[in-house]
Amino acid sequence: MLPLVVLLALLLLQVALVVRDQVLVVHAAREGAREAAVSGDPNASKRGALAAAPLDPERLETRAAGRAEPGSRVSVEVRYVSITDVPVLGSLVGDVQLSASATMRVER
């Protein structure tokens, strides 16, 4: 019985870590879109996403589309690989690909 309880606790911990990473990815996408909307720099979305959330830059990928005149929309998609590294379960589950997107109106 005890090994089953420990395994269930480890599974719960791994799910919580992946959910935390998903929340951070959503926040990074929103901040990346905000940065792209107020800046003319094409790399601003990645800088904004990295500054907003403590995510590993090696596993983070951003794509921005729609940069044009003020009043138009810019969309940013953030993809992140969440490593499943909880003992026992991490090697069984495999890494999880997370993604989120955000769209904002261009300010300037």
Helicity range of the residues? 40-55%
Total count of helical runs of at least 4 residues: 3
Let me know the largest β-sheet.
Answer: 3 strands, antiparallel
Please state the overall shape, judged from the principal axes of the Cα atoms. elongated
Element pattern in H and E: HHEEHE
Secondary structure category: alpha+beta
Q: In order across it, which strands form the biggest sheet?
A: 1-2-3
- Domains (count): 1
Kindly report the average pLDDT value: 88
Tally of DSSP β-strands: 3
Distance between the termini: 62 Å
Radius of gyration: 17 Å
Which residues form runs of ≥5 with pLDDT under 50? none
Q: Beta fraction of the residues?
A: 15-25%
Task: Give structural attributes.
alpha+beta, elongated
Please describe what this structure looks like.
There is one protein chain. This protein is α+β, with helices and mostly antiparallel strands. It has one domain (2-105). Helix content is 47%, strand content 24%. The chain has 3 helices and 3 strands; from the N terminus they run ααββαβ. It has helices at residues 2-38, 44-52, 89-93; strands at 60-65, 73-82, 96-105. Strands 1-2-3 form a 3-stranded antiparallel β-sheet, covered by helices on one side. Strand 1 (60-65) and strand 2 (73-82) form a beta hairpin. Helix 1 crosses helix 2. The protein is elongated and about 65 Å long. The protein starts with a helix and ends with a strand. The mean pLDDT is 88.
